[in-house]
Amino acid sequence: MFKRFQWILILQVLLLALLVSCNGTIEEEEKLKVMATTPLLQDWVNNVAKGRVSVESIIPYGADPHSYQPGAQDVSRIVSADTIFSVGLGYEEQWLAKLLESNSDLTNTPLGESVSPIKMSGGHDGHDHGDSGLDPHFWFDPTRVAMAVDAIANHLSEIDPVSQDYYQSNASAYKAQLMDLNNQIKDEISAIPKQNRVIITGHDSLGYLEGQYGIESLQPIVSSVSSETGLSPDDLIKAVKFIEKHNVKVIFLESTQSDKYAKTVANETGINVASGLNVETLDDANGTYIDFMKDNIGVIVSNLSYAGHGTEHDVPHEGHDEHEEHDEHEGHDEHDEHEEHDEHKEHDEHDEHDEHDEHDEHDEHDEQES
Question: Strands 83-86 and 198-201: what pairing?
Answer without folding.
Answer: unpaired
